[in-house]
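hiii so my PI (J.) wants the whole complex modelled not just the main chain, which honestly fair. so below is everything: two entries, each one labled with what it is. i double checked the lines twice but i was tired so who knows lol
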Amino acid sequence: MGYPHPPHPKETPVLSRHFGDADARGYDGWVRRGGYAALEKALGMPREQVVEEVKASGLRGRGGAGFPAGVKWSFMPKQRTKPHYLCCNADESEPGTFKDREIMRWTPHQLIEGCAIAAYAIQAEQTFIYIRGEFTECIAVMQRALDEAYAKGVLGANAMGKGARIDVMIHRGAGAYICGEETALMNSIEGKRGNPRIRPPFPAAVGVFGCPTTINNVETLSSVPHIIEKGGAWYKGLCLSNPKSTGTKLFSICGTVAKPGNYEVTMGFPLKELLFDLAGGMRPGRTLKAVIPGGSSVPILTAAEAEDTVLDYEGCVAKGTMLGSGGMIVLDDSVDMVYQVMRLARFYAHESCAQCTQCREGTAWTVKILQRLLGGQGEAADLDLLLDLSEQMTGRTICVLSDSCAAPVVSAIRKFRPEFEAYLGSGKRKARA
Amino acid sequence: MSETPAAPHAEAPGGGAGLPRVFVGEGRAKLDAVVARYPAKAGALLPALWMVQEAHGWISPAGMAEVAEVLDLTPAYVRGVVTFYTMYHQHPVGKYFVQVCTTTPCNVCGAEGVVQAFLKATGAKAPGETSPDGQWTVVEVECLGACGFATPVMINNDFIEGVSAESVPALVARYR
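here's the output for the full assembly
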């Protein structure tokens, strides 16, 4: 197992405070560090007050969509006429993103505590932690932690001795990026193919097994104990720029960067500082070419655009991209943009569930056209064809996988067009750098 | 325990008809415990398929038929689910199944060189093929979710971080 870096002075370690500390992984170690105090506190509060506290914190979904977590919880029916369910999305598969994995492998009880508080708040009778099938270590660590939590009475019929029944279990995925989409994830738990569902109905009305369901990302749920412990106002105060983006965020930095890893900073942190001060900047002799700031599904930023980008939901939108999952892919001047965009398109083509024509055909043809271009057989009209195709793939399908393929393609062609044109009419495969 | 129902392909060569049943005795008890945790029996489908793959190394048509029988589903439905998820093997694979991430973040860190090094070290001819000694299958996969530890590789259930083309021969030797 790789060990994380010691925190940089500019980091604000809340979620990552105990990363690398093996003693924090067990129940006793977790309790010694103040663990499960927040759950005990929450179980002594009216459910509505727990929801209100999370609303007040301004916490927004960390899986990529950025929807306010407390508001999402408040959509659940107040009177339980059917079972309620909580799903924790641990199907972390967005290229560039590897933060949930670190939360689970280092601080499994942090996630269990967050799940338990959320389950109490929305009256869930079962919580499914949906972990992608490849995360064998996370599954083992989480299962051990769950067994401990049951043995210690944190979970079960009388959670923390406070009378409420709270159950949490793991559901292992089996290799499908699309199952990170909330309705596909629910289908997968039900034992179906992971095809996204048409909304409405939304999960709070008809979710997993046809019952009201809330689904939150690992990082979102892991933030909840801290909010309950220190208060929504404290969390809201963690903000360097726009008051609509609060708290801390784990950024996964990868690609051609000197010190890849997870860095936790306060919302509104400057991208440039994160990349160059914390992550060590480029490798020797290299310069920054582009950054994909929020996982591979968001538009690419050029080095110039990255220069003054502020890392929060609004700051990224202002630059024409999205904060997404916070999976930051760094590309230096050695990177062949055309080839890497083809690789990203290939990812989406492979992961398309093939329900919607625009996505099934669009992702596959995007790859074919890019491969033709790379093979020296491209035509001048191909770039506009790709842009046109991408437009047909945006906003027309059941889920946003199709849009996610289009975003990097469109932004790369717009911002790095000469690189694409250099492949035109070359007649033979150009030697790649 | 009733007989495995006649299922399409199960009796054909490679259909897995000769493989032992998974959900008998202890296996059945384990499945029943899993089923009890879901509000509907079909919820246990993915876990049941994992159990078959752990027992046989892959999921044969006969294995799908057994799962269908114990969960009150049809073999065709089970097959539809198996084919959706890339981690379920629909054919036997090598003793060591190697998955190398080659998506963009790892790709720019040399992941394709790691694939080539695995092919060379194991004798497998191409991604997806099994080495002549039947020991190794090497596949390129999309994002393994460990992009900051490029290149991540899975060998069966072991998740290995930071693999480079240079470190592959020693890694392969550890499994031999």
